[in-house]
Amino acid sequence: MTTLIGWLEGWNAVAMVVIGWAMRLAPWAPGASCFPSRPVFGFDILVTLFWFVLTVLTGLVLHLVVTYSSSSAFAVGCRPRQFFRGAREAMLVAFGTSSSNATLPTAIKVAETDLQLPKMCRDSS
Description:
single chain; mainly alpha; 6 helices; 80% helix; 0% strand
C-alpha cells in the first residue's frame, strides 16, 4: 500500500509541474496563437481583436457594476460599496488564480466573516 501511495504522489507531483507550465503559458498563448494569422489577414485582424477584447471587458465591467450593485442593493439590502469592500478578498483570489476550486474556500470565508451572511445549511450531526 505504501508503494502505491508513493507512486500516486509521484504522478501527482509530475501533474503539478505540467499544470504549472500550462499556467505560466496561459496568459501568452492566446496572443501567440493570433500572430501567425496576421500575415494572412493583415493588420486588420489585430484591430478586430482589440475591439473584441474591449467589448468583452466593457461587458464584464457593466455586469460587475450594474448587476452586482443592483443585486446587493435590492435583493440583499446591502449597499454596493459595502458589498464590494467585503467581497474584495474573494474577487482578488478569483482574479489571481482564475480557478473556481481555489476561490471557493476564500469565498465561503468572506461570505461568513466579512459579509456576515448566515450559514444556510448546517450539518445535522
